[in-house]
Design brief:
- With 407 residues, the chain is α+β, with helices and mostly antiparallel strands.
- The protein contains eight helices and 13 strands.
- The strands form three sheets. The chain has a five-stranded antiparallel β-sheet with strand order 9-10-11-12-13. Strands 1-2-3-4 form a four-stranded antiparallel β-sheet, with no helix packed on it.
- A hairpin with a 5-residue loop joins strand 12 and strand 13.
- Helix 4 packs across helix 5 and helix 7 crosses helix 8.
- The longest helix has 36 residues.
- It is elongated and about 90 Å long.
Length: 407
């Protein structure tokens, strides 16, 4: 609701507004874009200052396009059903003329139900999808056969297929012209993911896989695009977090096989995210056990960082030096090894920052080790490097760069 154009809504008659608000709040269509209401005007004359907008255009997202349907109410007869003028999108209705029997919520209009208009629009969308399937079978039988395999398949549970015929007359179509768009909605279960990855109000957790077929039909080029819902964008750190395979790669050049392949890649990605979280948690908690008294803080939500103090004696007769140690883990852990940062709490560089040593490679590490073994081997490594660092910081040492000491 926050993104809606309030000025457009305020132009609507109060009797009409009650039917429009659920449409904008709940939404209709196949994409993640919002339904748009525009071109509001009134079909009646009025001398008062109240808005009486009772007709408008409703733009519904469908397969990367926008279906434009004009809704005409009569503000003087608020309990009457609206008239609907359909347009298939992009200025071409593709011969779409729905039968009234396909729209029971229209011919059985319930003025007491604020969801009545939403139900009509959903029925219109279902009717338009069926119309596109008929066009597809008539003009592009090869692609239609693959789409029908998707409709009849139960391989991908809960998915939805939405075809859109771009070109109604294939006889006039030049090569490399988009002829058919197919959108497959792939629902994904995020219940096993760690809580920090999920927003408070997650909304739908799905990917919209859009496949565009370019002429000629017998040997089409197929372009693929994946749009992710807000929860999945957060999980995958944006669209860059998941790469679609190209059509025909790995011998996958069938619509059903490609959809199943993409879905399996998404599931594998989610499994890796869950596994990485579990491994980070084991590793960080193992460090907590090793450095209980010296523990400063750790990330208890995503388990990506821990900091603690270690004491490194320079010699039996000298005072010990204290170091802050930071351990940082990436989302790709354990595939990507940890980064260790050792900082002296006494010495500063010429720029005023703490004297620091950073280690992100070339130390004992294996992603196959369990968390407690990783932590123990890291502890030994950090003690060795902190002792060497302490010796380097001693005044007069040949390797001493002249660190200023903060007392």
């Amino acid at each position: 609701m926050a993104d809606m154009d309030e000025s457009t809504i305020n132009k609507l008659d109060k009797a009409v507004r009650q039917f429009v608000l659920p449409v904008l709040r709940i939404g209709v269509g196949t994409g993640f874009e919002r339904v748009q209401i525009c071109d509001v005007f009134s079909g009646t004359r009025s001398s008062d200052s109240e808005p009486h907008g009772d007709r408008f255009n409703c733009l519904v997202p469908y397969c990367g396009s926008m279906l434009s349907w004009q809704i005409i109410f009569d503000a003087t007869r608020p309990r009457s059903c609206p008239d609907v003028i359909v347009d298939g999108g992009e200025g071409d209705n593709n011969g779409f003329r729905p039968e009234l029997k396909e729209l029971p919520s229209l011919w059985q209009w319930d003025a007491s139900d604020s969801l009545s208009l939403l139900k009509v629009l959903n029925e219109l969308l279902d009717s338009y999808r069926a119309h596109c399937r008929q066009l597809l079978a008539r003009h592009f039988p090869c692609i239609a056969a693959q789409v029908e395999m998707l409709f009849s398949s139960n391989t991908v549970p809960g998915f939805d297929v939405l075809p859109f015929v771009v070109v109604a007359d294939p006889t006039t179509t030049a090569d490399k012209t988009a002829i058919v768009v197919v959108v497959v909605r792939l629902p994904l279960d995020l219940s096993l993911l760690p809580a920090y990855l999920l927003p408070v109000n997650p909304g739908p957790s799905r990917g919209n896989l859009q496949l565009t077929f370019f002429a000629p039909e017998e040997n089409p080029y197929v372009g693929a695009r994946l749009d992710l819902s807000v929860p999945l964008q957060r999980v995958f750190q944006g669209a860059a977090g998941f790469t679609l395979p190209s059509w025909g790669s790995d011998g996958v050049a069938c619509l059903l096989d490609y959809v199943c392949h993409v879905r399996q890649l998404l599931l594998d990605k989610l499994e890796l995210i869950c596994e990485s979280f579990a491994r980070r948690r084991d590793f960080i908690l193992a460090f907590c056990n090793l450095y209980g008294k010296g523990l400063v803080e750790f990330d208890s939500e995503s388990f990506k960082r821990i900091s603690f103090i270690i004491i490194s004696p320079i010699s039996p007769a000298s005072h010990a030096l204290h170091f802050m140690v930071y351990v940082d883990l990436s989302n790709q852990f354990p595939g990507v090894c940890p980064k260790f940062t050792i900082q002296s709490v006494y010495h500063r560089t010429a720029n005023g920052g703490p004297a620091t040593r950073v280690f992100d490679k070339d130390y004992p590490y294996s992603p196959r080790w369990p968390g407690h073994e990783m932590a123990e081997r890291s502890r030994v490594f950090l003690m060795e490097k902190s002792l060497q660092f302490a010796q380097d910081l001693m005044p007069g040492n040949a390797r001493d760069p002249g660190w200023p000491v903060v007392c």
